[in-house]
Amino acid sequence: MYYIRMNAYAKINIGLDVINRRDDGYHNVSMIMQSVNLYDNLTISKNSSNKIIVRTNLPYLPTDKKNLVYSAAHLFKEVTGIKSGLLITLKKRIPVAAGLAGGSTDAAATLMGLNKLFNAGMTKDELSKLGVKLGADVPYCLMMGTALSEGIGDKLSPLPPMPKCHILLVKPNINVSTKFVYENLKLDDSTIHPNISLMQKAIESQNLLELTKHMGNLLETVTINHYPIINNIKDKMVELGAMTSLMSGSGPTVFGIFNNYKTAKDAFQYFRTSYQKYQVFLTKPYYPINHN
């Protein structure tokens, strides 16, 4: 085998709670992560150059160690001792800096692809230990599907698949700093936390209505104050028939959950037409064949 093609799936946070701030500066979180059927494409091929060459369809993306694809390939070669050169072609579809784990999922797909391409025989656990060196979301992006994420995001527990639905993604043309959001997050006795436990029970009972009733993202308390457009998009989604709407991660992407395809498609067309500078996608949950 001289090359391999991989899909790198985006994720949304259908629930995000921040428990407390740790002494080391990190935060303990409780999140429910969900893969969606929006993905980047990677083609990884061997060559004799002994170099890692990354090419992408977006001219503003770095192609050196600042790109997680390059960093993942470099780390994999370092750990396995593989000498072969690599050409990695990345076709980006997932919006950049959007709260959708675009960079992390590309890194995860790179690790999985190289593991298969070179028959390295690394287990998911071994790949996850490599992945966490690249970013907190990479181990989840290796697992995919529906999962509970705890600790600093490093403790993952697979959950039953999210109930079937349609998911509308809208990324406004703004950028949000994750560091800024966490630095300005207030955690005190008055903080109203989303109920991740009730969300988990709704997933286990496959009750989409109950799940959407309890969805919440504590980081919205910071981001919406500074970027009111996020709340405007949420309100519009609900007005257009979404069961609920939420910001993913630290933003700025907003998603809406729909139980009816026509309603979701009409909302998709509205945002595509009315907000032409926004990135808009209509997708659904992604369920890996092997959910473990």
Topology:
Elements: E1 3-21, E2 27-47, E3 52-56, H1 68-80, E4 85-91, H2 102-117, H3 124-131, H4 138-143, E5 146-151, E6 155-158, E7 166-171, H5 178-183, H6 196-204, H7 208-214, H8 220-226, H9 229-239, E8 244-247, E9 254-258, H10 261-274, E10 279-283
Parallel strand pairs: 3-4
Antiparallel strand pairs: 1-2, 2-4, 2-5, 5-6, 7-9, 7-10, 8-9
Helix pairs in contact: 1-2, 6-7
Largest sheet: 6 strands, mixed
N-to-C terminal Cα separation, in Å?
27 Å
CATH class designation of the largest domain: Alpha Beta
Give the DSSP E fraction (strand runs of 2 or more residues).
25-35%
Helicity, as a percent range: 25-40%
Structure notes:
With 292 residues, the chain is α+β, with helices and mostly antiparallel strands. It has helices at residues 68-80, 102-117, 124-131, 138-143, 178-183, 196-204, 208-214, 220-226, 229-239, 261-274, and strands spanning 3-21, 27-47, 52-56, 85-91, 146-151, 155-158, 166-171, 244-247, 254-258, 279-283. It folds into two domains: 3-158, Ribosomal Protein S5, domain 2 (2-Layer Sandwich), CATH 3.30.230.10; 166-283, GHMP kinase, C-terminal domain (Alpha-Beta Plaits, 2-Layer Sandwich). The protein has ten helices and ten strands. Strands 1, 2, 3, 4, 5 and 6 form a six-stranded mixed beta sheet that branches. Strands 8-9-7-10 form a four-stranded antiparallel beta sheet, covered by helices on one side. β5 and β6 form a beta hairpin. The protein is globular. The two termini are 27 Å apart.
